[in-house]
Amino acid sequence: MWDKSKCDLCGDCLVRCQYVDYDRDKAVQQITDLIDGKPAEILRECVTCCACNEYCPTGANPFDLINRMQEENKSLPIPEKMVKFMEAGGTLPTELIRGDESKPALSLCVMERPLPDGALDGQMFEGMTVAKGGDYFCYLGFVHIGMASPLEENARRFVDQLAAIGSKEIVFVHDDCYSMLSKMKEYDIHVPFKAIHIIEYLRDYLKNHKEAIRPLKRKIAYQRPCASRYSPQMDPVLDDLFDLIGAERVDRKHDREEALCCMGMVARLDPERGKRFQDMNLSDAVDAGAEAIVFLCPLCQVSLSKQAEERGLKPIFMTELCRMALGEMAFPG
């Protein structure tokens, strides 16, 4: 949530933005205009990656201000059919497959279709209760079409449907779902279960099954999802996970706080701009010596897989990489 009282108009949020070229004076003026309710240029230039929240040194959450004003001013050229497509997420068929009650439940949100085949097979997920479909849609994706209100409007329903599963712990395959739950304090909504990030679950599972790991000895570029800006505390956990499976997370420019968005949405609205940043991102991975690029978000993988393969980078979903370390899948040749 935007907190004006924490903003000291330092301008860091937009000076560090990788999608605009603002000096400090212009950055400060843009934020000042937004505070004054003016439709500043950044509302059109913002790619909705949420990075400015992470860049803000005082925790004022400037992206939340930008996103709210994008909606109020209809700043992004989002086709109506794209809005309808997003809204349909909450109406998709729902399925709850009961499993071992002693294990955490596994929520797929509406990501089952874009997930790679076999991504959730194998010993790590065996016997878990699985929840998928519209009842478990998290709505965080609306920020990427310049809309903030659907998150708050559907937050209570999201939590209530998850709570109705009856599990004390729920693992979230979709990073957006975990991030959505992190916003519940803003909406004064109690979450009556423990939310477990998929990265944390994978790390802990592998830590408890070290004897089954076959170190991969591969150089991997990581595509950090925009939603991870809401849970930066998971980045060291991801480093632990890579260490456990013997994969080197290559040191490259566009990772961690400087990660680039997959540009999936932007590429639809402005193909030239989207392709420019996608090329920058993937070229950076190749230059860092990566053999593969690993995804946590299924939609990031859909957006970048073809271009990655054209550059000789093998696209791999994070759970697949862990299954490879357990000997359940072969590293692609």
Sum up the overall morphology in one term. globular
Order of helices and strands: HHHHHHEEEHEHEHEHEHHEHEH
- Please bin the fraction of helical residues: 40-55%
Q: What is the name of the CATH architecture of the largest domain?
A: Up-down Bundle
- Individual helix count: 14
Low-confidence stretches: none
Q: N- to C-terminal separation?
A: 45 Å
Residue-averaged pLDDT: 97
Descriptive overview:
Helices cover 40% and strands 10% of the residues. By secondary structure, the chain is of the alpha/beta class. It has 3 domains: 4-73, no CATH class; 82-202, Up-down Bundle (Glutathione S-transferase Yfyf (Class Pi), Chain A, domain 2), CATH 1.20.1050; 212-325, Rossmann fold (3-Layer(aba) Sandwich). The strands form 2 sheets. It has a 5-stranded mixed sheet. Helix 10 (234-245) links the parallel strand 6 and strand 7 (247-249). Helix 9 packs parallel to helix 10 (234-245).
Record keyword descriptors for this entry.
333 residues, alpha/beta, Glutathione S-transferase Yfyf (Class Pi), Chain A, domain 2, Rossmann fold, five-stranded mixed β-sheet, globular
Short description:
The protein is of the alpha/beta class. The protein has 14 helices and nine strands.
Question: Helices and strands in order, then pairings?
Answer:
Blueprint: H1 12-15, H2 24-35, H3 42-45, H4 51-55, H5 62-73, H6 80-87, E1 95-97, E2 105-107, E3 130-132, H7 149-163, E4 169-172, H8 175-182, E5 194-197, H9 198-207, E6 218-223, H10 234-245, E7 247-249, H11 264-269, H12 271-287, E8 292-295, H13 298-310, E9 314-317, H14 318-325
Parallel strand pairs: 2-3, 2-4, 4-5, 6-7, 6-8, 8-9
Antiparallel strand pairs: 1-3
Helix pairs in contact: 9-10
